[in-house]
Every structure is written in structure tokens, then in C-alpha cells.
Amino acid sequence: MCTSLTFESTQKNHFLARTMDFGFELDGRPIVMPREHTWTTHFGQIQHSTYGFVGTGRKLEEYFFADGVNEKGLSIAELYFLDEAKYLPEPVEGKLNLAPHEFILWVLGEIATIDELEQRIDEIVLVNAPVSLLGITVPLHFIITDRTGKSVVVETNSGAIEIKDNPIGVMTNSPEFEWHLKNLNNYIFIKPTNNSTISIDGYELKPFGQGSGTFGLPGGYTSPERFARTVYTRHLTEKGQTTGDAVNAVFHILDNVTIPKGVNIKNDGAVDYTQYRAVMDVDDLIYYLNPYNTQDVFSVTLNEELLTANEPTEFGIEATFKATSLN
């Protein structure tokens, strides 16, 4: 479970944001991968990344990333795509064969724009291969944006890699993206203004109070409910006057789909909750992170020192709740 969205500020800065909802403790942290980083795919093919990037990840055999933004302003997040993702059973000669969880490493290290992604997507195939942390092949799909503000979804539910235009800038989990778009037709009556008073045979019916126009807006944590709720809040939330206002607005949108510990239990007993929220500024190249155990927001800005480092830079975070005392 995860929720993601794009956002544009009044200053025309573009953002990609996400909640990372999972039942297994991922123990991720902000990591900057420098330019020309060398890594080896699950299938033994050596890669030399062109671009540096920052995102939340973890060191396994190679680094594993769940999201990030690169120095060209391309940003991506992966989300769970249960029962929908389909991968090739075996590697294909003449292609770059990637495990699904390696797709982000390739995109952030090699791709500058969505247009370039569309031109180069045929270079790769996604092949069934487990991630050692979980012991399974992770079913994933991806949301991507760049400095133009364009957004796409990458899915493999048809058996091939498809790049799908994302006109509303939101993505959650299964079913496939087209289903979520069609499902929005169920909520065309939702509005930020109140319903009008009506009269039935002289008897007046009026709303109980403020917010009657949102009656029927789904409030649960299923993927379709989070999708519809995020489309509504993203579309109407005020952007503010500054870039900081916009980042703050995005975190408030994420509040509507943030899952507290204990309210969503998986069939195996694992607690599925929002382990962190991230906002990525693709214009100023700033990665904002808010872990579950604190209300604090931490940031990492891509700069030449980090991009030209000899090895990846990992940032530790003290994620404990703090309050500012006023007396």
C-alpha cells in the first residue's frame, strides 16, 4: 500500500510526493548516489550510471531505492501492484535485464526526461527475480514526473512494459491505472461547497453543517478509496505563495492517506502503516523526508559535492517525537 501524487506550486516548481506504506520494516534512509556509480544487476550485467540522484534506500547486495529525484529533475516512486504485475520468466539476450526493484536505479541513473524514457524503454526488460530483503519478486508499478510537470505511470499488467499518461497526477495500488481513472466517475458529485437547502412538500431539508458537499468522499485505506480521496484533495488544496507553502500543502494532502500503526492489519498479522512520507522538488532538487516516529521533516539538497563524491552518501536520522516548549 502506498499513495503518490504530483503537485505544482504557484512558482511553477514541480513535485512528486508519496507515502511508503508497508508491513515489513524497510529501514530506509536518505542516500545520495553520485554520478558514474557502478552497479551490477541481478543478472550480472554491469551498469555505470550517468546521473547522480537522491532518494530513500537501503544497501543490500546493491543499493535498493523506493523513490528518488536525479540531478536532471526526473523523479520516480515505486508502489505495490499486487496480483497485477507480470514479468518475463527468463532474461532476454540483447536487452538490459532488470529485476523489478532495479528499475528505479536504471531510471534515475540514466534518464533525464519522460520523453527520453519513452524513447529508451525498449532497451530493458523486467524479469522475475526476488529481492533478498523480502525473498520474493516484488510486484511493482511506478509513477514518474519531470520538470515539465508531465506525469506517467509505468505498469506491466499486460505482460509488457507500458508507459501510460497520467492526466490527474495520482497513483495508488491495484487495480491497473485505467480502472482507477474510470472509477473517478463515481465521485463527480463531490465538491468543496455545501449542498443547497431543498424543500419537499414544504418541509425544508438542509445540511447538518459545514462540509456537506464532501459527503460520499471515500474515507477508507483501500487503494481505490485513497486514489479518489487524493485526486479530490490534490485538485483543490491551496498552493500557497512560496515553495515552502507548496511543500507544506503536499504534506497536508498526504495526511489524508497516512496510515497510523495498528489500524490496518494484513492477513499474516503484519501491521501495514506509513513508514515515511517523501516530497521531491524536481526543480530545486530537494528531497524532503518525514519518518513515522516524528513530525519533523528532514531534507537533502543535491549539490556538486554530493554528486561528485567517490561513494554513496547515507544520512542517518534521529526519528523521535519532539515538541517545542513555549514556557
TrEMBL record:
UniProtKB keywords: Hydrolase
Keyword check for Hydrolase: yes
Choloylglycine hydrolase/NAAA C-terminal domain ranges (all copies): 2-312
Highest taxon of source: Bacteria
PANTHER family assigned: CHOLOYLGLYCINE HYDROLASE, HYDROLASE
Homology family: Belongs to the peptidase C59 family.
Protein name: Penicillin V acylase
Species in which this protein is naturally found: Enterococcus wangshanyuanii
Lineage: Bacteria, Bacillati, Bacillota, Bacilli, Lactobacillales
